[in-house]
Fold NB-ARC domain-containing protein.
Amino acid sequence: MRHVASRVYSDIEESNLRRCPRSAIGMELWRKLSGQEEKMKTLGNNFEALESQAADVKTEVEGAELQTGKKRKYEVENWLRNVERMKNEVQNLEQEVRERKISLLLLGNRVDKLNAEIALLRKLCSFQGGLLLDVCATRGESLLATELIGQTVQQNLKKIWAHLMDDSEKIRIGICGMGGVGKTSQAVNIYNKLIENSKTSHHVFWCTVSKDHDYSIGKLQSDIAKCLKLDLSNEKDEKKRAAKLSQAFARRDKCVLFLDDVWDKIDLHRVGIPNGCKLILTTRSVDVCHKVGCKELKVEPLSKEEAWNLFWKKLCNGEDTTLSPEVIDIAKSVAAKCDGLPLGIITMAGSMRGVDDIREWRNVFEELKELTMGHEDMERDVLLSLEHSYSRLNDMKLKHCFLYCALYPEDWMIARNELIRYFIAERLIGRSKSLIRKFDKGHTILNKLGRSCLLEHYGDDKYAHVKMHDLIRDMALKIIEMNHHRVMVKAGVGLKEIPDQQEWAGNLEKVSLMCNNIKEIPCGQSPRCPSLSTLILKHNQLKSIASSFFKHMHALQVLDLSDNSEIKVLPNSVSDLVKLTGLLLARCTSLTYVPPLGKLRALEELDLSFTGIEEVPQGVGMLVNLKNLNMEGTEKLEKIPCGTLSKLSHLQCLGLQCRLRPVKIQAEELEELTKLEEFNVHLDDVHSFNRIVKFLQHQEVPLGKYFLQLGDSNFEYFECKSYSKAISWMGEYYITKGREEDVSFLPYDLEALTISDQWFTSDYFCDVFPSFWGNARHLQFCAINNCRGIEGILSACSSSTSLSSPRNEEEIEVDDDQIQESHNAPFQSVEILMLSHLQDLRGLITSRKLGRLGFGVTAPHGTFSNLRKLGISFCDKMNSVFTPGLQLPHLEEITVKFCDEIKDIFDHEGVGTISSRNSHDNLTKLHKVWLSSSLLEFESICQGMGIRFFRNNHNMPFILPKLKKLQLESLPKLESICEGMMVCSSIEEIHVSRCPKLKRLPFVLPLDNNGQASAPMTLKEINVHRDWWESLEWGPPNVKAVLQPFLRFDKIWEVKTIGQ
């Protein structure tokens, strides 16, 4: 950086100052240049220091992860990500300086901004709360399990568990048996049981080994390393990789490794699995158990009675089901035909669910008899029973969608949305005009296949991924094979070269070569496949494709080259694939050239997301049938040529959001896209932003999904992007109440809002968009970061009752719970609220004066009533967090960190003050007041007026029924969580760090049968400093002892309070 700066400035000096060395202009220019050079040198020094810090943090966190089995905190991961982003920005600036693409004025501004951001990153590097999440936060996720039936199964489970609990025993267990018999189900059951055990949960690992993968020591090492959160990507030597894996296991006490679906012998020593690691594997081969040295536990098929019980349970599916005795007899015979294999039983029962016609049952049984006649192999029989479930799908398109899943590799976690995009491109989903309806139809299809037990829901979110059992995939491939060889599937089999020419049969319709190691398609390769409609080459290592390859593929409709990160040029022959409906190039990060696309008039989806293109491919404006254009993450793309978007009259989905810089577009063109249903875009001017928001607001049919970003991405809240309708502002914009040149609109259906680096001209956040907060019924997520001018999120008296006018009332009741009611209170729908670096913020709800007589009151009834998660950090003017009277029935997590002035979490003194002592003349007939504890100052104002007070009793415990986590960190003035007691029946985690003035935990503990205090059943961990814990003041004498088993002591930090 310093070298570049010096050289560039020298060049500028020679080329400019030589011409006017003694002029005043020349001297002034020289002074400016000299100053900028110093700034650039400072920038270089600052960034080098930041890089050194990042290297230290990365080394420390990786070592700690290996040693403890814990996971790094999200703030650490985000900080490292921001350092990497900063590296890119500094390098980009360096390149612009070298190529003289930046003016002197802009250079100074950019350098100042980068220096400021680097300074902030260096300041945030302290991570005083530690680098790692707590044990319970790193606990592995349970796997989807099926219910286990059978006496032998239960005996096996007991044996395995007993071996695992014996620390003195070296454990290697092989669960073996034929396909579909339930080997994996038993292993999953044990795995989940270990995960639920707090002593073992962070040392249990699951790795699937499939026959169709490029099975090698290196592949297995990489898969296991991924489970251990160990990065082996830069280590190619097998022995060194094994040593690192072995060390990672050795650092973890009582490790258990599950290897599922092992087909061949594994040399554990070569892989790096040490003797001290307990191993459980599943395999169809007894020989594998013997060769690996495992104790063999064979899983036998279910007995006839067990098989029937499982069949009946899955047939009824939890509902009352009545069948005639004759039908039940036939059903038992059908169940028996599944040969005791749970997979076949479950699948067959699912396909017959809801059938009560005896004729249909008889027909099924006769078909099964014919199918299985002459077969002796039980596994083949279950394949045939699975095939019968397929044949019962009463819709041919449903069958095609099912078979399409077999194009993926074995054990592949298939993203539902990606699969549905294929269905749409293949015309497997009806020609609905609406994209949203097409996706609804796609999800309906996948749900039907799931209910038929032909697909499994996979992962935490059952609506995110599906998976095909390997035996069911075998059946699907068998059906495809019988279909005249019109499909070639070689997905995930480790291919390093494209299949030979003779393998490309002339009648091929679909080819899947995804997830291999193919690096090039050489010249001379030109398969003659005139009927080929689908070609999937995603997830390879392609660097080049010969133009001849597509020469004879004129019927091609779907071409997927996604995730080939090294390919730079798309061959020109793609321009002639005139029947293409889908061209998918996502995450081809090196791709810079796409040939002209103007002839592809049938194209409906063009995915260029996260490619390296610098300009929109020629001819895109001629794609009159284009419905989905995705250029998200194209960081080198600067603009969309004027008039391009407005020509795409059928466009339904548009993706233009980029993390580093906005793509310049004309807002007017978006307004012409009347069929648009989804879009994301990154803007850099307020006028376009306001215009697009107005466009959203006035849609007759609201858009189903949008993400709108204004300004630089900077420190991004990634949660915001997970919502369907989200807006993010980042950068230096003024936010006011009405100036046309400033941000002034928000769509009413907004679900997530992120605001960062702004200057507010109003004291209260809710004052900025009054019409929005009056109609915001859908906002769930709100994050405000590094903004100036905000003193409160909302005003306590923004809609309060004023007492300044003459009144005739004789009685007034002023109560926290009844002061205000609103059918749509501000922030009523918000579930997550994140506030950070707000240096003017005094509270969530603060009061203001109301003329001659007025007093601050609590927020409207319902405010924050759906809040689940609150995070506050670096807000140094806040005195308390929650004001009295708030109802928080759904609050699950409170995190407050690095706020120097906070004294209370729940304020017991109230927020209100009376602004005038001279306004009691308006209340001459008042003689009785019911007074809330949050309005105690009202009593002193009215002394001498003969008014009688009845004060509410607020000694009852404060109840937060769903609170699971309380984290308080670096709050030097915090004195209390709340004045009274708190009932938190769902509490799981309590973290208190560097809060020296906090002397009491206010939680009410439940009583056992003997009337003694006991720990909440949900409690998992209390993480504190030892000295602070010993200094706490306790009520009942046994409370401290009751909580002792849940303590986790942090490293003792020296805490210095103000004045020391």
Summary: The chain has a mean pLDDT of 79. The radius of gyration is 34 Å. The chain has 25 helices and 41 strands.
